[in-house]
Amino acid sequence: MRTDPLKKLFFPLVCSLCLSFGSNTLHAQNAYYLWPTVLFVKGQDLCQFGESFGATRKEQVNDMASQLKDLMRHGASTQEGMQALFNLDAMVDKNRGQATALSRMDVTLEASLKAYLDRMYLGFNAQDIKLQFVDPNPLSDLIKQLRDQARQDTVDVAQLALLSGIAWGTYAYGPGCRGDVLVTLHIELNNGTTVSF
Q: pTM of whole model > 0.85?
């Protein structure tokens, strides 16, 4: 049975988040109201980095030579073997490019984080919910943004002053190249306090 990779990612993160903001040791504030958009910035692709630097240049050349020898052993000429290797490499690059083209991983991460946070708070009394995302804009603005598939990334200073702070994060594809995503989350409060997960 395959587990949901975002569940593996966000469950411990949201537990830590709830515990940090639920404890009286962080702040004496009753609740924290954050800007509704959680911006996730893409970091270094650790999968690609690991593939590029996970072996020495000599090891990579030897691996390609070994693959070429196998193809030639099965009847391919040197030129045909080289072309086959180049074609396979190009096909892998094309598939990876299509998987990340027009990627909206930031939107997926934001929605998943909020959904897991809401799930953690399920059954809580309203006064016990310490961390909430609040949109000070009218609902009509939200409907327009959703229709236009736009992000709410224009921040009005006066609106931000009504909130406790913002959440933002980074993400990167994991070094195992198995669809893992490494995520950090930072909560920055108006008083200058930062909590990172």
A: no
